[in-house]
Amino acid sequence: MADSPLSDRLDDDDYPAYTMGRAAEMLGTTPGFLRALGEARLITPLRSEGGHRRYSRYQLRIAARARELVDKGTPIEAACRIIILEDQLEEAQRINAEYRRAAQEGSDDSGD
Q: For 31-51, what is the mean pLDDT?
């Protein structure tokens, strides 16, 4: 059945599907690196019923960006701050685009 809850979870970028070990392996890093990202509050993994950290695809993409910066010599704290600022800038640009679109639609409607 295509609309089952399982298929929904598999398509969900925010579903915490990866254990810390698997996430570290996929990123080519260590569990300690992922813990450091959590301590810096860049990503906050969800916890399994047993208390183990679980990561989503979205969180893995953020961690991969942090690893890129750290691999280039950026201290981890600075890398986390850069990523947070990049995310804030992207959100501000998205909101700005929405405002411009709404203003444009408003001026198009009033020009009759």
A: 92
